[in-house]
């Protein structure tokens, strides 16, 4: 192969990519932090023996897990305004779609995590008069968390890459800027190689931090 | 348990006959699906009484104990604490208690489980402090002092900063007792507290329970340790097929049982004397 890579021009336009990176990070932080919290309640409803909450949570989870995230984003950006009259910005639509999609997966992680705890732990908390909320906060979540970190890490990594789909509904995040740059410079190979490196540098430290957190949580009480 | 000294406490019949019961259970029934485990239990417990509940497995003794603090929801009947009824009967007779009522009940009626159920992510001291701090809202310093006190009472003051997994089963159960005591309950329920312990660890737990009995606490204990029941209890109940089949003083029930079922049950425990 005689192709000679020309990274110079891409790096000269690095500020474009960095601008996109900011939106990528913002999308990730909003969607992931929101999903981690909200999914606890969806997971509780999903694990509940009460019919109605269980039904709603199950429908929600299956809907978002069994349709492509690309379709979900397009739907929030183009179909929702037609139905509701509310036109979200591209960023809002993407953040909402990614948040709801990730919540659905995280809800299943919560449900499995909560169910992995022996029944005796719930009973012990109730026996000293704890309310369900106190039980969750003091007994159940701290213990379940250690087991759930690997699964949440997977979800976070997946979400960080999934933010690139927001480019298809014109959110000017990293992938969007990369597409623009590659058509302007006619250097797609170089552009996307640089973008791949940026995603890796963004995500990998997060994975390492998650490993460290996992070790710390597991060492407690061992 | 030949090595357990008799408790130096007044027997049941010294309690005034007309004293208001601290715990009154009437017509208590419990079904799991179509399986009726409790078929109408009536019991009045006076302050300071220590009741040992015996019976073969499936007789409903654990279920009965768990109904008292609503770990199981009674299918029918009445439960009153100090004369105040707990829960309200629904259309089908099921007793349901609101969450606030449940919490008040459980701070007054402590429970010790067969499997200890300590919180593994907390140290021994934190386990004992948890109820007073989180449920009763006690300041941490006060709760800590109190917890250390109760740990001393069960002989584990030196284990305060350990995590439960580092402790033997007997030590874990003693911590569980301290955790229940820290809530300062009026009644303590023991659900087979030594059944999952290695034989050589049973004694230390029974010693602690016997120590508590000297303080005049009201206690109900489900057990298979007949010798211990004899020394511990002021009254012995024998449950059979969801009913109280026979009850009386330890001497009456354990040494001179009237009922055939009770005799057969006791005989099985003494079948291998040597």
What does this structure look like?
The complex is a heterodimer of chains A (222) and B (274). Chain A has 222 residues and is mainly alpha-helical. Chain A has nine helices and no strands. Chain A starts with 7 loop residues before the first helix and ends with a helix. The model of chain A has no long low-confidence stretch (mean pLDDT 92). With 274 residues, chain B is an alpha/beta fold. A six-stranded mixed β-sheet of chain B has the order 8-9-10-3-11-12, sandwiched between helices. In chain B, strands 2-1-4-5 form a four-stranded antiparallel β-sheet, with helices on one face. In chain B, strands 6-7 form a two-stranded antiparallel ribbon. In chain B, helix 3 crosses helix 4 and helix 4 crosses helix 5 (169-182). Chain A binds chain B through residues 118, 120-121, 123-132, 134, 138-139, 142-143, 220-222, and chain B through 69, 71, 99, 102-107, 110-111, 113, 115, 117-122, 130-131, 134-135, 163-165, 176, 179-180, 183.
List keywords for this structure.
heterodimer; A: 222 residues; mainly alpha; 81% helix; B: 274 residues; alpha/beta; six-stranded mixed beta sheet; four-stranded antiparallel beta sheet; 9 helices; 12 strands; disordered N terminus
Shape descriptor of chain B: globular
Q: What is the overall silhouette of chain A?
A: globular
Query: Taking Cα atoms only, what radius of gyration of chain B do you get, to the nearest Å?
Result: 19 Å
Computed structural class of chain B: alpha/beta
Helix share of residues of chain A?
over 70%
**N-to-C SSE series of chain A?**
HHHHHHHHH
**Low-confidence regions of chain A:** none
Rg of chain A: 21 Å
Instruction: Identify the strand order in the major beta sheet of chain B.
Output: 8-9-10-3-11-12
SS elements, strand count of chain A: 0
As an assembly, this protein is heterodimer
| Distance between the ends of chain A | 56 Å
Put simply, the count of helices of chain B is 9
Secondary-structure element order of chain B, N to C: EEEHEEEEHEHHHEHEHEEHH
Query: How many separate helices of chain A?
Result: 9
Average of pLDDT of chain B:
90
The amount of helix of chain B comes to 25-40%
């Amino acid at each position: 192969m005689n192709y000679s890579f020309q990274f110079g021009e891409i790096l000269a336009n690095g500020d474009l990519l960095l601008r996109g990176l900011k939106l990528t990070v913002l999308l990730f932080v909003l969607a992931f932090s929101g999903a981690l919290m909200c999914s606890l309640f969806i997971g509780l409803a999903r694990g509940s023996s009460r019919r109605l909450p269980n039904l709603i949570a199950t429908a929600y989870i299956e809907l978002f897990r069994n349709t492509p995230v690309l379709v979900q984003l397009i739907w929030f950006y183009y179909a929702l305004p037609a139905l509701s009259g509310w036109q979200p910005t591209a960023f809002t639509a993407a953040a909402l779609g990614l948040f709801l999609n990730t919540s659905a997966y995280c809800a299943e992680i919560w449900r499995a995590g909560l169910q992995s705890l022996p029944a005796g732990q719930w009973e012990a908390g109730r026996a000293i008069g704890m309310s369900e909320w106190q039980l969750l906060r003091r007994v159940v979540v701290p213990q379940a968390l250690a087991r759930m970190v690997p699964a949440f890490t997977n979800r976070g990594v997946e979400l960080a890459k999934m933010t690139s789909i927001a480019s298809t509904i014109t959110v000017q995040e990293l992938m969007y800027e990369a597409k623009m740059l590659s058509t302007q410079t006619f250097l797609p190979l170089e552009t996307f190689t640089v973008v791949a490196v940026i995603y890796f540098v963004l995500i990998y430290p997060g994975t390492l931090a998650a490993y460290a957190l996992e070790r710390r949580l597991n060492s407690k009480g061992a | 348990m030949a090595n357990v000294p008799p408790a130096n406490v007044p027997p049941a019949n010294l309690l005034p006959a007309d004293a208001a019961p601290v715990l009154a259970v009437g017509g208590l029934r419990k079904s799991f699906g179509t399986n009726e485990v409790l078929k109408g239990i009536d019991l009045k417990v006076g302050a300071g009484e220590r009741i040992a509940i015996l019976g073969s497995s499936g007789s409903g003794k654990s279920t009965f104990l768990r109904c008292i603090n609503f770990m199981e929801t009674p299918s029918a009947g009445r439960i009153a604490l100090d004369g105040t009824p707990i829960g309200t009967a629904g259309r089908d007779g099921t007793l349901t208690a609101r969450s606030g009522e449940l919490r008040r009940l459980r701070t007054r009626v402590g429970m010790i489980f067969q499997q200890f159920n300590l919180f593994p992510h907390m140290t021994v001291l934190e386990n004992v402090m948890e109820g007073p701090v989180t449920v009763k809202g006690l300041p941490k310093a006060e709760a800590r002092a109190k917890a250390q006190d109760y740990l001393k009472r069960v002989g584990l003051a030196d284990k305060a900063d350990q995590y439960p997994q580092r402790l033997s089963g007997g030590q874990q159960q003693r911590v569980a007792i301290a955790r229940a005591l820290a809530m300062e309950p009026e009644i303590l329920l023991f659900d087979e507290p030594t059944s999952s312990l290695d034989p050589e660890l049973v004694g230390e737990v029974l010693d602690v329970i016997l120590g508590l009995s000297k303080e005049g606490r009201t206690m109900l204990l489900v057990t298979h340790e007949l010798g211990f029941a004899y020394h511990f209890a002021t009254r012995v109940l024998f449950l059979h097929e969801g009913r109280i089949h026979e009850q009386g003083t330890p001497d009456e029930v354990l040494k001179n049982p009237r009922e055939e079922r009770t005799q057969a049950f006791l005989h099985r425990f003494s079948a291998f004397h040597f």
